[in-house]
Amino acid sequence: MKIESVASQQDRIGRYAVKFDDGSAMRLYRQTIEDFALYSGKELEQEEFLRLCDAAGKMSAKMRAVRIVSASSVSKADLESRLVQKGESKPDAHQAVTWLEELDLLDDQKTAQQIVQRCISKGYGLARAKQALYEKRVPKEYWQEALEDYPDQSEKILAFIQSRLGESWDQKDLHRTIDGLIRRGYSYREIRPVLQTYYDNADFQEDYDG
Predict the structure, then answer these.
(1) How confident is the model at residue 203 (pLDDT cuts 50, 70, 90)?
(2) What DSSP character marks residue 2?
(3) From the CB of residue 104, how many other CB atoms can be counted at a distance below 10 Å?
């Protein structure tokens, strides 16, 4: 197989278009192009072409993994799953995750702490933090340490209530506000004391069922 052309400019994620004389094309990162010394007019034997395809897949998974990790906190399992969903092969995705872990750029324990801290800063309740850990596929062995110092969120609950209930409100407004807090990860057991302290005229239920 002969290389017809190698693009002189990279695309938005740093890849160069390499076109072959059979009409096929590949998008390769500079390192892969340099590793295989690719240039317009070069002839590739079948074995070398297969090695190029393998290297291209591995590099694609690594670079995609770096972009994902740079954008958000992810666990190893979450990252591998997302890479496969994006079209990377399972072996390449697994290798990319291992590569980042070896570079100390991927650590489930640190990820758990980052996720919990983000939930705290957003004013979410403990249940929402647990949900976030679950959704990010963080192993449960790291949950307890990350959650053990979860602060009292009474002030965050009050701020949310005050932002929703003005001077004039009714029970429907109150119920909508409680529903909003529950969606943010608070239990009615946490919400009710705050309401009782600041809203004496509210009609409370013993067991709020939404």
Answers:
(1) low
(2) B
(3) 8
Cα first-last separation, the chain: 66
CB half-sphere exposure, 130, CA atoms < 13 A: 11
Task: Give the pair of three-digit tokens for residue 200.
Answer: 């004496």
Q: Which residue in this structure is represented by tokens 């429907």?
A: 172
- CA atoms of 52 and 33, how far apart (whole Å): 9
Show me where the domains of the chain are located.
3-102, 108-147, 154-198
DSSP string of 31-96, one letter each residue:
HHHHHTT--TT-B--HHHHHHHHHHHHHHHHHHHHHHHHHHS---HHHHHHHHHHTT--HHHHHHH
Select from 177, 147, 172 the least CA-distant residue to 159.
177
Burial (Cβ within 10 Å: 0-12, 13-18, ≥19) of residue 56: buried
For residue 125, which of 164, 181, 178 has the smallest C-alpha distance? 181
pLDDT band at residue 207 using 50, 70 and 90 as cut-offs: very low
Average pLDDT rounded to a whole number, residues 140-169: 89
Residue holding tokens 């240039």? 39
CATH (residue range 3-102): 1.10.10.10
DSSP 150: P
The pLDDT confidence band at residue 205, using thresholds 50, 70 and 90, is low
Rg of the chain over Cα atoms, rounded to whole angstroms, equals 26
Q: Which two tokens stand for residue 162?
A: 């005050």
Run of H or E including 16: strand 15-20
pLDDT value at position 172?
86
